[in-house]
Amino acid sequence: ITKPITCIIGGSKISTKINIIENLIPKLNNIIIVGGMANNFIEYFGNNIGNSIKEKNCNQIVEKIISLTKKKNCNLVYPIDVLVSENINGSSKNKELNQIASNEMILDIGPKTVSKITDIIDSSKTILWNGPAGYFENPNFAHGSIQIAKKIIENNKANKIFSVAGGGDTVSLLNNLNAVNNFSFVSTAGGAFLEYLEGKNL
């Protein structure tokens, strides 16, 4: 696996992935947190996240991740703008992190975040991706995940990167885009894929 290595990690629960994240950070150049678990970071840094999903009692985990990335010189990225709605079936509004109303929920990453992530993908040689960037079941909130996928595919086709994607939701998204064959390696089993990244023998 060639450096720079970037891991994009999403999904809603941060506690189930903390061991993996801790084990990966020393090997990574960039860790990008998206999806529901990013809401814990957005709130931790003093923003109101309204009705967004978040896992309770995770501040210690967030602190641990922040201090470990600093110690291991790994660049930690979380959303800098978001798409919100009052419910999961609604239409999207782009908001800065300090503009989220108490009746809104974060459902995707915003355009500034998308361009930040695609820039990082462009400067990476290896990409590990587990977990979508938003509630992609509603097309209004699929944009972030689709842009990430498109950028990875573009660089994969140009032989610029080695790309690994895993996890049920990530694979569903790639199936929707007919993009499974455009990644170097796709694992349908999220758990097993993450254990492999964690350094366990399968």
Summing up helix and strand content along with how strands pair, one would put the structural category as: alpha/beta
Secondary-structure element sequence?
EHEHHEEEEHEHEHEH
Span between N and C termini? Answer: 18 Å
Round the Cα radius of gyration to an integer and report it: 16 Å
So how many helices? Answer: 7
CA-based shape: globular
Number of strands: 9
Side-by-side strand order of the widest sheet: 3-2-1-7-8-9
Mean pLDDT: 92
Instruction: State the share of residues found in helices, binned by percent.
Output: 25-40%
Q: Report on the biggest sheet.
A: 6 strands, parallel
Percent of sequence in beta strands: 15-25%
Uncertain stretches of 5 or more adjacent residues = none
Structural commentary:
The chain has helices at 18-24, 36-44, 59-71, 111-122, 143-157, 168-176, 190-198; strands at residues 5-9, 30-33, 75-77, 81-85, 93-96, 105-109, 126-130, 162-166, 185-187. It has 202 residues and is an alpha/beta fold. The strands form two sheets. The protein has a six-stranded parallel beta sheet with strand order 3-2-1-7-8-9, sandwiched between helices. A three-stranded antiparallel beta sheet has the order 5-4-6. 43% of the residues are buried. The mean pLDDT is 92. Helix 1 (18-24) runs parallel beside helix 7 (190-198) and helix 4 (111-122) packs parallel to helix 5 (143-157).
